[in-house]
User: Fold these one by one.
Assistant:
Number 1:
Amino acid sequence: MNIRNFCIIAHIDHGKSTLADRMLQCTGAISERDMRNQVLDAMDLERERGITIKASAVSVNYVHSSTKDKFELNFIDTPGHVDFHYEVSRALTACEGAVLVVDATQGVEAQTVANAYMAVEAGLELIPVVNKIDLPSAQPEAVAMEIEQVLGIDAQECIYCSAKTGQGIPELLDAICDRLPPPRGKADALTQALIFDSEYDDYRGVIIYTRIVNGKLKAGDRIRMMGAGRSWQIGEMGKFTPQMTPFKEPLEAGEVGYLVASIKSLEEVNIGDTITLDAHPAAEPLAGYREPQRMVFCDFYPAGETQFETLRDAIERLRLNDASFTFQPHHSEALGFGFRCGFLGMLHMDIIQERLERESKVNLVQTAPTVTFEVLLNTNEVIQITNPADLPDLSRVREIREPIVKVEIITPTENIGDLMKLCDNRRGVYKSQQFLSESRQILDYELPLSEIIYDFYDKLKSITRGYGTMDYSMIGFRTDKLAKMDILVNGMPVDALSVIVHRDKAPTRGRALLAKLKKEIDPHMFEIPLQAAIGGKVIARENIRAMRKNVTAKCYGGDVTRKRKLLEKQKEGKRRMKRIGTVDIPQEAFMAVLDFGE
Amino acid sequence: MPCIWQHHGEPLRADIPALYIHLPFCFHKCHYCDFYSIVDRDSQRHAALVDRILDELAYYRNRSDLPDWRPRTIFVGGGTPTFLEAGELTRLLRGLAMGHASSGPFEEFTVEANPETLTDNIAELLVECGVNRISIGAQSFQPELLKTLERWHEPSSVRRAVKIARAAGITNINLDLIFGIPGQTHRQLEDDLDRILDPELSPTHLSCYSLTYEPNTAMMRRLELGQFKPLDNHTVADFYATVRQRLADAGLKQYEISNWCKPGYHCRHNLAYWTNLNWLGLGPSASSHINGQRWKNVPQLGRYLASSGCPPRIDIEHLPSVARIGERLMLGLRLIDGMPQSIVDSLLNEDASRRSTFDHLIEIGMIERKQGHYRLSEKALFISDTVLAELV
Ligand SMILES: Nc1nc2c(ncn2[C@@H]2O[C@H](COP(=O)(O)OP(=O)(O)OP(=O)(O)O)[C@@H](O)[C@H]2O)c(=O)[nH]1
Ligand code: SF4
Ligand SMILES: [Mg+2]
């Protein structure tokens, strides 16, 4: 049998999932009746937000339109958003080729470049596809030129298609068969299968997504995870057609499928681990994956009626499904017991928070996201902190280092000046500038991660009227004039509001932060002083005036029950608030830290 | 004035010092009104309501667990009681008095009246029936503000109504005033106060409320539609301060968050609510409280009329004792003199968490101790809902 393994990669929204729909349809894997848009985006959140969050794998059968040879095509639809790069990088190792989709109306964008380079580095063969050619504003040839210019792929190799109308899809499928190499592994070698993903099912336990690299696997086999060192018996094995379909015959080298082995927890399965046969193990595991890097951290605390234990259960349950975030119990002076969690980016953080609240009906107070800092102590010891409150006493600290990212921005040429100003404001270091086409350029900067995680992208979008895109990746830690700014509410330091800032920017940030707090915290029965301080020295202050009058205060006709319920409801309005000392602080206030005061 | 908390202990099983009657008919629905009131001129329904209320009274009179009770105060409210056809109103009032075996005047027998509907004839009838207090909804003397409220009466009719009541022999008169109406200026407030304090009116009792936007009222709807701009809290606070100052200067004592009176004229009926005594309410939507049990009659005339004996009830509550503590504080602290320390302490002794909230409120100056009583501080009067919400 001829097998082709590939993934679909692109910038966000360029049409990967829609293209996957057409391939499923064109190969008859899905009947017209079962077809719906972005059929592989099965998660509620994916459908609501219209984006892919999790990669999904599918197997389809295809008959080449001219040679009439039969092919099994295994492909993986990947997410485009920068937060989910690691999903793409995992998918790449399960494939020999990649279909690189570029929107004919948008051209090459930041994640087009980032994902294409990742695929090339992983040794994959690329097929460039110019999509959405049905749109009136499509410029297929110009976009093909951009691909040649930036990625060095011959424009003539581009396949033009519309994932909407289906135009060009058979040509694309034929090209996949013709141009992509077959899998290299041998079916008669000792078994090595790569775990490239997993999910958790309430009834069947862990479902492992695997690519057989060498040898074979079938239901009933006793397998060993080479990294974890544990062995299991395969209960069920099969392929994604696209729904999981059990297969009796073995899956052989080159094929992609799933297996179930009564594994109760995702913790038992390491993505990137190698599966081999317990009785005839391979000598070496395959090259695995690096742990995905968590870029931002924040705390979740139970709010309202929600208890710590309820929150812990909810987080553990979600973690069963999604191993991409980290969590550990954490205690805050101000907020009590909660969890410090690590995420791949801001979108990822939002998604986890929303899934927690939605799927487990818990009420959360979330602190502002921060990055990891490296602290060099006088003892020459280096520690990592993910919470400004954990910064040791300054007398013990020699140096604070912050994470630096390489940022690649693709922008219309006319906005270059404003973007450079923005980057300079954010302590950026200019690296290079490169032409993409007549009207577009690629701008490279090094920037502190803390300066870009929050509103940088929005600023970029507004400066470029939506046309600019960006990608970033970690390059290391660098020291700067950093200090911890403490926030005092009613004289009490609130650890969850403290923030590590650049000293020169501290007064501006401090004032912006307090102004935001003042806006978010309702007037209380008493006056509330707000202060920002560095090392005990106050650098900004504000006052929230005491409440003077709220609409009173009838109690007519003895309808005491109604009056009581009204007052109770008024109190309930504070559900998502945290009481610190005697001050009720709403969720939104904890995000005040993100106000840059620009 | 003796301490109004003199009958503070848990009331006796059969002691029902207050009786409330709800007559829901009005000739027009004011936009801020959230009482159960309906526009209904069908005199047959008026008669049927009187029958049914007297029937409900009889039901309570005949209950063996409430032997021989006699209220000290009666309050006939609504709605607009004086909108009832005169014959029916007399029949009702007589029936109320006769329903109670040992007759003789009630300590306080109030009927609410709309300034337009009070006539010499009705006033005389009221007096004949034993009514000794009248409550008139003046609300404001500014035609444009009355218009904003969609309150239909001529400002001058208030003075006329007061005159009529006095002439008939009713000297204990309450006026209702609303402040904080959208568009109201400080001058307009002063003018309202001037008029209300005019010697010719000179009421014995005043209820001054800041306008509240109640859910499901036309006023609230208009607010949501942005048809007017509500006054901001600081202006309303200034207005409240003005009201307090002017009324105090005129010799009226504030004895509750929104109530003032000449010495000795506090409303005994309303005090029953605030001091947590028992009362029965008759008529659709009327609330009752007997020994910690609260309920409300159905707020639907049709369903009320269709029933007999005990009417259908909603919101039946018998609160656990901890919640009742909150309720008693919520009510008692509405009084300007507050609650006797001994009562508060005995309530809070059973409730450590409320005790700490209470101590916190003392600490931040919202509650103070004066003359053996705990009471809201002056500052707290302006934000009483917030302070009291902490305690419920
Ligand atoms: N007109 C037209 N619209 C298309 C075409 N392909 C995709 N779209 C639309 O483009 C939008 C994005 O398509 P998706 O398939 O969700 O894009 P994606 O690349 O999977 O996006 P992410 O997974 O979030 O990165 C949707 O509204 C599609 O309907 C096309 O060929 N023509
Ligand atoms: S007259 Fe009184 S009860 Fe009737 S609608 Fe107006 S405010 Fe409401
Ligand atoms: Mg997608």
Note: Chain A has five domains: 2-179, 192-277, 296-366, 373-479, 483-594.
Number 2:
Amino acid sequence: MLADLAMAVTLVGVTAYVVLGGADFGAGFWDLTAGGAKRGAPVRAMIKRAMAPVWEANHVWLIFVLVMLWTAFPEAFGALTSTLAIPLFLAALGIVLRGGAFALKGEAGTIAEARALGATFALSSVLVPFFLGTSAGAIAAGEVPLGNAAGDAWGSWTGTLPIFVGLLAVVTGAHLAAVFLGADSQRAGQPELVHAFRRRALGSGVVAGALAIAGLVVVNSEAPDLYDGLTSGAGLACVIGSAAAGLATLALEWRERFEVARYSAAAAVAAIVAGWAFAQEPYLLPPDVTVQEAAASDAVLTALLIAAGLGMALLVPALVWLFRLALSGRLAYEEEPRP
Amino acid sequence: MIDGALGGPGTQEYLLEAREMQAMSFAVHIPLVCFGIAFPAMVVFLEGLWLRTGDPLYKALAKRWSKAMLILFAIGVVTGTILSFEMGLLWPEFMATFGDVFGLAFGIEGFSFFMEAIFIAIYVYGWDRLPPRVHIAVGFPVILAGFAGSLNVIAVNGWMNQPTGFSIRNGEVVDVEPITALFNSNLWHELTHMYLAGFMVAGFMVASVYGYAWLRGRRDRRHLTGLVVALSFAALVAPVQLLVGDWSARTVAERQPIKLAALEGLKETEKGAPFEVGGGIEIPKALSLLAFHDPDATVRGLDTVPEEDQPPTGIVKLSFRAMVAIGTGLAALGVWFVWMWWRRGRLPRTLWFHRALVAAGPLSVVALIAGWVTTEVGRQPWVVYEVMRTEDAVTGASGIPVGFAALGLVYVALAAIAYVMLRRLARKPFEVEA
Ligand code: HDD
Ligand code: HEM
Ligand code: HEM
């Protein structure tokens, strides 16, 4: 019971990171593909404006997930980080490069500097979700056994399913970002940008949907147990919910109703995370280790859950305030005059 | 003693590299977080001066500093993320065995990171957009979160040095009491010492920059104000740090006698032990006096434990001496400044004062790292003091040297870019509102 609750709280963190952090990574994807310095400038400026005040807060969800995992499920955490050392380390390096480049971009003095920083930012924005996705995929594929580096250092995360989840993470992030940026452009009153992001949102939405459907085929052949979970009971409900939310998002994007599409797009992604959790139940590291077995003692879980409850009571109002200020343009980024 | 819950690393050829990689990552993160600890207080202080006096110079300076603060914060965030990953990537056995014991502190820390990230963004991007009173109020949660974040991470380190809140039965960790583990007996001196160190490092580093500008002839009111505000924070803290350092040393003497022996390079147990200042000069009975406040106290030597349980003494002894010497020097510098400012209302005029200031910033960073080397290397060969060995905590994965090299390169690049960008920020035209 306590173990399930701790898992649920962890998954709330995972979902928040996949949606909020994912959209920040996706913004990097659009930065990468925005075109030359001149043509891409408006898109890049909007990305910067939207991301600057919130990316650090969004990033903390990842730390939250790590901390929940190692406190509530320490042995599973050790197994994960030792077997999946390569993709996790690459993701961590990517996070450093991306955060550093983004923070310093604003101070770039010449076009060449801005380009180099921009390219670093954009490229690492694609790599991080990919490697984190492959790590999640490796868990789903049952490639992470209990033990110190007991799984295959390369094989565990380079199978079809992990690679596939990595790609899905990149594409869903890009889609979320397009929707969020579309909405931000609308609020900023920039119709050309709204158009630009509409195209990107529809395109990436269709690709994400197609990938998700192809994904079911991959899961069927690579991880039959997971497939059973996704096609029955609560898992199935989530899959259907995700599909419905995805279709609704496409319709909303078509009509440029981005403000509502924000929520439906987020719901579609959240439903995938929930569906995965239900389908894998009761296992944390399939095929052997259950959530229950992996959990820390009740004393630890109780203290952690109380701390998390109190923390959330502080966090939620603060986050709401930050997002309201940011969305209403009151924290809009302002360039200092160039020397 | 306990082996890892995952069944041990087998053989890890690159334990030393893993330790060095951990040390490098700390050496990058910890100086940065000093700015997360102290910069918000300095900026809020300047903003408060502006609100009280209405002098636009204070506001312009506060805005400028808050920009730098945001850049340093962002780099602190990403380097801290590396540390969080490394806990698992380098030390999975340690995490698997004890993650639940000390995890609560990290759980609370996570929320203080959220608070810091949220309010720092509102603060820095909210200049001129929020009413002034609301704006300055937003600064306080940032200061508080910096303190809470330090408290919790230090709680973990204190626990590693003074593990409590669990028992070991049949090689398993049982009866975990997370609250007891959180408030371990090493927490208080480490927290106080580190928190003050944060103010010293941030204050002296900023003062160094202005001291350099002074030597280069930029001596207008803006530069003077920046120098005096930053230096005041550091100078007031520096003498207090000596007392806290003494408290730390006595706590170590009592609870980690072997670490103390390593600090002093004391091979054999001695009654009324002398303190070696360096170069073979000894002050009789001084060590007993320092460590126990009793000239005739007995100090345990390294030889009271088997060789494989002794920490490497050379580096620990050197680091400790460096910290104490620098700490004493910085306290003297602080007292000099405070005295002149208080009695004469001006800075000392001699060039040497400003030269010393330029050196003070980097030296405070050296003291900071030296202090952590003292604590961490002095704890070896244990990762959890007298409970788990570092060699049992390490990962069984291969490729540590590759990761080490890659991370090193990334950090060098990051440092270079950050330096260039901060320089550029400093050169931007300084706008004081009319
Ligand atoms: C600006 C930085 C700074 C300065 C000037 C000093 N220290 Fe320090 N010292 C640290 C920064 C530091 C630290 C923040 O790096 C450490 C590492 C762990 C800790 O609690 O604080 C530390 C640790 C540390 C320890 C080990 C504590 C332990 O392992 O539990 C001792 C015994 C001292 N210090 C003693 C001193 C003395 C006697 C000083 C004065 C002369 C002094 N320190 C100045
Ligand atoms: C949470 C609080 C911790 C703090 C503040 C801390 C701080 C430090 C610092 C500053 C250093 C030395 C830096 C240098 O040499 O330049 C260090 C070294 C080291 N730390 Fe920690 N540490 C912490 C936790 C850990 C953890 C979780 C581990 C892993 C199990 C660890 C293992 C080590 C090791 C192995 C070294 C290298 C020692 C050597 O080179 O002999 N520390 N730590
Ligand atoms: C002496 C020890 C440490 C102190 C005083 C300290 C303090 C801080 C502070 C004040 C911040 C806020 C960011 C900033 O100001 O730049 C921060 C960031 C961070 N630290 Fe540390 N830290 C220490 C060691 C560690 C260790 C051992 C870990 C992980 C195992 C860690 C993980 C992090 C993370 C993940 C962040 C980013 C938080 C965010 O996203 O906002 N730190 N740290």
Note: Residues A 56, 59-60, 63; B 29-30, 32-33, 36-37, 73, 76-77, 80-81, 83-84, 87, 113, 116-117, 146, 149-150, 153, 194 surround protoporphyrin IX containing FE (ligand 3) (CB under 6 Å).
